[in-house]
Design brief:
There is one protein chain. Helices cover 63% and strands 9% of the residues. It is mainly alpha-helical. A 3-stranded antiparallel sheet has the order 1-3-2. A hairpin with a 2-residue loop joins β2 and β3.
Length: 155
């Protein structure tokens, strides 16, 4: 029973229906395997739910990667890598270097992407970068097909 599992691990049973909707009959097994899945797949829920469950299950590995993904899901936009690392480090009571390592690991996995803008490395969810690249490509194609403006004197 999902509600009982949640209550036994210090989480509100009110989330049982939402978790069941997300993971079905496998909910308890999914949460036991990786409590951080809450933060990653249901970012509208507080990160504290994943953290509390992970502490109860003794599965704290992956905490910083989950925190990075959680915040990037919430932002849904690029964020300066160093700024993001500082914000998460303050929230998670770790060093920014630890968060930068987590971000690098996520980039290697292909979950997070980056690009440079005005000398700042921006990080974002890989799916966001893919969407932005697609939009940029479409806009460039449209710009190439547009009608040129008339000479200045003809306006």
């Amino acid at each position: 029973d999902i509600a009982k599992f949640l209550q036994d691990h210090g989480l509100p049973a009110i989330h049982a229906a939402r978790f069941y909707q997300q993971w079905g009959e496998e909910t308890v097994a999914v949460l036991k395997e990786s409590p951080w899945v809450i933060a990653i797949e249901l970012p509208h829920l507080p990160l504290a739910l994943s953290k509390r469950l992970a502490e109860k299950l003794g599965k704290m590995e992956g905490r910083l990667q989950a925190a990075c993904l959680h915040y990037l899901h919430i932002l849904r936009a690029p964020r300066g890598k160093d700024l993001l690392a500082g914000e998460i480090a303050a929230q998670e009571n770790v060093s920014p270097e630890q968060v930068l390592t987590a971000i690098s690991n996520l980039k290697e996995e292909g979950t997070v992407a980056s690009r440079a803008k005005n000398g700042v490395e921006l990080v974002m969810l890989a799916e966001i970068k893919k969407d932005q690249d697609s939009i940029t490509k479409q806009l460039k194609a449209l710009a190439g097909e547009s009608c040129p403006l008339p000479p200045h004197g003809d306006r």
